[in-house]
Write a structure and sequence with these properties.
Blueprint: H1 2-11, H2 13-45, E1 55-62, H3 76-91, E2 96-103, E3 114-115, E4 117-119, E5 122-123, E6 128-133, H4 137-140, H5 151-159, E7 163-166, H6 171-174, H7 178-181, E8 183-188, E9 196-201, E10 216-221, E11 238-243, H8 251-262, E12 268-275, H9 276-283, H10 285-318, H11 321-329, H12 334-365, H13 379-410, H14 413-419
Parallel strand pairs: 6-10, 7-9
Antiparallel strand pairs: 1-11, 1-12, 2-6, 2-11, 3-6, 4-5, 4-8, 7-10, 8-9
């Protein structure tokens, strides 16, 4: 049967050449669409390195001289102590699991501070986010160590004066993970006179649409600077809270109700409370809209390809009713006819697929597709997307052949030949 099928394909080469060209173009376009959607989905699904579920940001305010309760004689140290007292009172609430203060550190934050980290001849590359924080910060957002350290263990390391640095900090330039060199002998922010001990941190992504391989972090215990800089703890710090998993219900309303009586200390008070669900949504709104727009456009293009290819094989099968009738007159069963028609379409797809993959490689080398892991040509990704493209087109061919062929085989052979 296969020999007869190839003979028929060769004898009908004029029509099959145009069909093969159509399949080639469709295969390349389909690969490009699947590759784009694949990279977007792969980036979004990467581990974030943090967890914001049940987390809240509390914004502190400071009374002005227009308030009758304003104390003009409050010193910087007193303001710091007021903020720390609010932290302690929040920590004692039964619904609260952990409370932290930080500066340009919490997830989905548009405010950034940069820094550098050096070890021997190694220097960090790219923009490294400096995250000043109290040790409880890693408990609030559940950071993880690159060697499997828990948030509690990381908090203890910060208490001891260690720095936490992304495991990928030196990977881009030197190909060396932080876990290989973690320990003492590091210099932070150009300070060559002080040696720091650094532990490897599981990479913390900047947001959900940026890969971990481009996100670099150094965590520093801000509490160690309080004696030197009393004003480093102030109302502008990020006061973040993690609530116990089953205690979210009514947390914001209850805290607001208690804020005036329990959380106004000196000139400091609670000004606002927001969940990280809202913070995340607002911060990523532009990226989310861009992804939705891209997905809608790609979906519309896929639908057009589907109907175009479906129509091509539908019309082609409809035009071969007399051929189907002849096969049946010569003793072919419905199963034989189906197998022959399906095999023809799928063999044509299989023949053009190597050429389509070659075009895909050229496009990827030319950097015309999506970037992922710092490149546009990843062999596993290219092969997976090409395979998915092949499967999708094969399904379109099967659907385009199956229904009209089924209808044609329901006709009596004599009737079909008479109509012809």
């Amino acid at each position: 049967m296969q020999k007869k099928l190839f003979t028929q394909i060769r004898n009908e080469w004029r029509g099959n050449v145009w069909l093969a060209l159509e399949l080639l173009v469709v295969s390349v376009v389909m690969w490009f669409i699947i590759d784009t959607l694949y990279t977007r989905a792969a980036i979004y699904m990467e581990p974030r390195g943090f967890n914001t579920e049940h987390c809240y940001r509390i914004y502190l305010g400071f009374l002005t001289d227009k308030s009758p309760d304003y104390n003009p004689n409050e010193s910087i140290e007193q303001r710091r102590d007021d903020v720390l007292e609010i932290v302690e009172r929040l920590r004692r609430r039964p619904k609260v699991e952990a409370v932290s203060l930080s500066n340009n550190a919490h997830p989905y934050n548009g405010n950034n501070s940069g820094c550098s980290l050096e070890y021997d001849t190694l220097r960090s590359s790219g923009f490294v986010v400096r995250r000043y924080m109290t040790p409880d910060f890693v408990r609030v957002f559940r950071y993880q160590g690159a060697r499997g350290e828990t948030p509690e263990q990381l908090a203890e390391l910060l208490e001891q004066g260690h720095l936490l640095a992304s495991d990928n900090l030196f990977m881009r330039r030197y190909g060396i993970p932080m876990t290989q060199i973690a320990g003492s002998g590091f210099h932070f922010n150009g300070d060559t006179l002080t040696s720091y001990t650094v532990d490897a941190l599981f990479p913390v992504r900047y947001h959900d649409y940026e890969q971990a391989c481009w996100s670099y972090t150094v965590c520093y215990n801000v509490a160690s600077l309080m004696n030197q800089y009393p004003g480093i703890i102030n109302v502008l710090n990020e006061l973040c809270v993690r609530v116990k998993a089953d205690k979210d219900q009514g947390f914001i309303d209850q805290l607001r109700a208690d804020s005036e009586k329990q959380f106004r200390i000196g000139n400091v008070y609670i000004a606002d409370i927001r969940s990280f669900t809202d913070i995340r949504r607002n911060f990523q709104q532009s990226w989310t809209q861009d992804t939705q727009f891209l997905s809608t456009g790609m979906g519309f293009l896929l639908l057009n390809i589907f109907f175009g290819l479906l129509g091509t094989f539908w019309f082609r099968t409809q035009q071969r009713r007399s051929e189907i009738a002849l096969h049946k007159i010569n003793g072919a069963t419905n199963r034989n006819v189906f197998a022959r028609l399906m095999s023809e379409g799928l063999w044509l797809l299989a023949i053009v697929t190597p050429a389509a993959v070659a075009v895909d490689i050229v496009l990827a080398n030319a950097e015309l597709n999506s970037w992922h892991n710092g490149t546009t040509l990843e062999w596993p990704r290219l092969l997976v997307c090409a395979a998915l493209s092949f499967v999708c087109i094969a399904l379109m061919i099967i659907i385009g052949i199956w229904y009209p062929a089924r209808k044609a085989m329901m006709l009596q052979p004599a009737e079909a030949l008479h109509d012809e």
